[in-house]
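Z., the sequence and structure:
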Amino acid sequence: MKKQQGFTLIELVIVIVILGILAVTAAPKFLNLAGDAKAGTLNAVKASLQSANAEIYGKAILQNKQAAADGTLVNPAVTTAFGYAKATEDNLKLMLDVPDFKFQAGVDNTDLKIVKSTDVLVLPSDSTAIDGNSKTACALVYRQATEAGAKPTYTVINTGC
């Protein structure tokens, strides 16, 4: 009699069930990669904005405009507040070359700590605009300097990414 080699049907079914269980437990970890990628990209945009603003501040020092509440630099024509870029959509568009992002100003949102007069939002293009009722967002909040010697703030909100 010849000895047969191979797997039985029960062994194959057990292996398939085990692989299914592993897939169900591992899949959620990989499904949130898009949100993590958006948050990571926002952090990269934040670093780019900080770097550009450091250059703006250096130019403001050279043009002796670092202490003025209102100023305009020459080349690039950026309006400044205490040497750093003012929080306007036009300024951020000049400073950043991010085609997959949009800018939003004029939002007041106490839950997200966004102030209409001093903040501009940088959002991924596929994100929804933020309104006063939003409790989550996927955005970078740029807040301009408010006094001489103070630096602007950069806050990444990734609760909605």
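The two ends are 65 Å apart (CA to CA). The chain has a mean pLDDT of 88.

Let me know what you think.
H.
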